[in-house]
């Protein structure tokens, strides 16, 4: 029997449209799929708690799918290059197939794997177009989304999805695998994941069910996507983040839909590619402001305010609903993510990196590129960003996007507040329900933010 090849799975936990799996199978060699839980390669931050919950169930689902293909998923823990080198030695494998990943820690791990003398063959498949390939006429990366999106569309449609292999050749001996339960990815005491279980079905099958549910609704996406009280978006983000479905599969599933809604949805997938392209050219986007003037921003060190924000106790119902939805389900509506980010950075004057860190730990879709690009967009410090001085008024946003029922769902103490009062309950309602006063009034927060911005401008020269 020929030497086996390793299939190194990371955030590409699927069998269909998986070009690395396809290449491994097409090599004609037995294939050993492996997932390495790597908490050792230095990285921006270790995987957060919500992502670990998702990972457990996604690996479980992938294991079952592989068993149905007479294959297995080998689980190992440790530094990627060491684990892969050990596995190569144990099995006689010399080649590793994997999908490209662009986070700086993965690039480092890949270099170390190649340095260990292993033949690492990387394939594209997690983005609409290979990150770094959509450049301006001068060959430089796009900084601004709109020209990026225009150029990306010239590369579309993405290649048609690669079919799931019927059979995955197995090696004569399987190497040892860890037991998933021993990784302790699920919470025990307290078990905070009840709301997660009610909301999500991690795994490739769950991803396709979400996509199928969304296909019929896509034409309404244009209007519905900004309304937190409706389920108007696809909720595919964690499935995309873990690579249980590819963006090409999403694109092709909607290719006959020329409604405005479907077109806007495609452009949101374009944002995902855009964010990834930013970290390819600026790997420390999650740690440093892209606009260096923001190194001089006089951030406030206010732990009480940060904690009130994290736990949904700011006294702004739309913000508190969003933060509690996040805690309960591991996900938050995009419009509300923008509102809560703006309140933290501008009204509370807290460094965007504190918010980025909380989201990293609590989001099931936590993604290095998307999280840092969106936080820097909200802060005004990114390459294509909202102007810092355009300060969102949370109460107006709540009314404009009709968030009443959303608030009633996620802030139960306000569930019986009727009409428009839900957006800004009276002092009497707050007193009766125990719902807090606003942590800072809008006008005061706004003035303080603009003052801090002026200090930064002066300091930056
Ligand atoms: P849909 O509206 O159905 O969009 C489809 C897909 O397009 C999404 O699944 C996502 O992959 C992509 N997409 C949509 N909006 C954006 C966007 N603004 N930027 C990049 N891609 C987008 N998204 C993450 O996946 N991970 C994160 O860590 C993350 N952090 C964020 C932090 C902040 C402060 C903000 C404002 C946004 C963040 N987003 C992040 C982007 C966005 O909020 C989510 O992708 C979206 O809410 C996911 O829901 P959905 O799948 O229903 O999206």
Descriptive overview:
- This protein is mainly α.
- It folds into three domains: about 1-125, HUPs (Rossmann fold, 3-Layer(aba) Sandwich); about 125-160 and about 200-280, Serine Threonine Protein Phosphatase 5, Tetratricopeptide repeat (Alpha Horseshoe); about 290-460, DNA Cyclobutane Dipyrimidine Photolyase, subunit A, domain 3.
- About 45% of the residues lie in helices and about 5% in strands.
- It has helices at about 20-25, 50-70, 80-90, 105-115, 145-155, 195-200, 205-215, 220-225, 235-240, 245-255, 260-280, 305-310, 315-330, 335-345, 350-360, 370-380, 395-400, 405-410, 425-435, 440-460; strands spanning about 5-10, 30-35, 75, 95-100, 120-125.
- The chain has a five-stranded parallel sheet, with helices on both faces.
- Helix 14 packs across helix 16 (about 370-380).
- The chain is globular, with a radius of gyration of 23 Å.
- It starts with a strand and ends with a helix.
- The structure holds flavin-adenine dinucleotide.
Instruction: Write down the Rg.
Output: 23 Å
Give the % helix: 40-55%
Proportion of β residues?
A: 5-15%
Strand order of the largest sheet: 3-2-1-4-5
What is the ordering of alpha helices and beta strands? EHEHEHEHEHHHHHHHHHHHHHHHH
Query: What can be said about the biggest beta sheet?
Result: 5 strands, parallel
Mean pLDDT score: 97
Number of strands: 5
- Distance N to C terminus: 68 Å
Number of helices: 20
Low-confidence stretches: none
Which ligands are bound?
Answer: flavin-adenine dinucleotide
Shape: globular
What is the domain total for the residues?
Answer: 3
CATH homologous superfamily of the largest domain, by name?
DNA Cyclobutane Dipyrimidine Photolyase, subunit A, domain 3
CATH class of the largest domain: Mainly Alpha
Structural class: mainly alpha
């Amino acid at each position: 029997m020929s030497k086996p090849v390793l299939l190194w799975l990371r955030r590409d936990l699927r069998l269909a449209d998986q070009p690395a799996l396809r290449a491994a199978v097409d090599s004609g060699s037995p294939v050993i799929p492996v997932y390495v839980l790597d908490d050792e390669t230095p990285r921006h931050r270790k995987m957060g708690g919500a992502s670990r919950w998702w990972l457990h169930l996604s690996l479980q689902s992938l294991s079952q799918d592989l068993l149905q293909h007479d294959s297995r998923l080998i689980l190992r823990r440790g530094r990627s290059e060491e684990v892969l080198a050990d596995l190569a030695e144990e099995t006689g494998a010399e080649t590793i197939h994997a999908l490209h990943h662009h986070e700086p820690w993965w690039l480092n791990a890949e270099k170390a794997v190649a340095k260990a003398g292993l033949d690492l063959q990387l394939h594209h498949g997690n983005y609409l177009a290979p990150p770094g390939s959509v450049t301006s006429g001068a060959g430089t990366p796009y900084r601004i989304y709109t020209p990026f999106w225009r150029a990306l569309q010239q590369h579309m449609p993405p290649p048609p999805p690669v079919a799931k292999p019927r059979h995955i050749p197995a090696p004569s001996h399987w190497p040892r695998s860890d037991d998933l339960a021993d990784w302790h990815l699920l919470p025990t005491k307290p078990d905070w994941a009840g709301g997660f279980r009610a909301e999500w079905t991690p795994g490739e099958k769950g991803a396709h069910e979400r996509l199928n549910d969304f296909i019929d609704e896509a034409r309404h996406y244009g209007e519905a996507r900004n309304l937190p009280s409706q389920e108007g978006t696809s909720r595919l983000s964690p499935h995309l983040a873990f690579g249980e479905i590819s963006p090409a599969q999403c694109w092709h599933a909607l290719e006959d839909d020329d409604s405005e809604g479907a077109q806007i949805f495609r452009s949101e997938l374009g944002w995902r590619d855009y964010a990834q392209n930013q970290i390819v050219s600026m790997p420390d986007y999650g740690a440093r402001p892209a606009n260096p003037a923001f190194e001089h921003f006089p951030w406030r060190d206010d732990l009480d305010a940060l904690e009130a924000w994290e736990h949904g106790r700011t006294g702004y119902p739309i913000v508190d609903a969003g933060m509690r939805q996040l805690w309960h389900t591991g996900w938050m509506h995009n419009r509300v993510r923008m509102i809560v980010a703006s309140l933290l950075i501008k009204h509370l004057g807290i460094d965007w990196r504190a918010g980025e860190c909380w989201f990293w730990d609590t989001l099931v879709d936590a993604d290095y590129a998307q999280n840092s690009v969106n936080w820097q967009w909200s802060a005004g410090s990114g390459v294509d960003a909202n102007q810092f001085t355009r300060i969102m008024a949370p109460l107006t946003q709540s009314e404009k996007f009709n968030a009443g029922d959303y608030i009633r769902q996620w802030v139960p103490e306000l569930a019986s507040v009727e009409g428009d009062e839900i957006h800004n309950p009276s002092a009497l309602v707050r007193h009766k329900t125990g719902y807090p006063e606003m942590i800072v009034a809008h006008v005061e927060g706004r003035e303080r933010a603009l003052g801090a911005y002026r200090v930064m401008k002066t300091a930056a020269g």
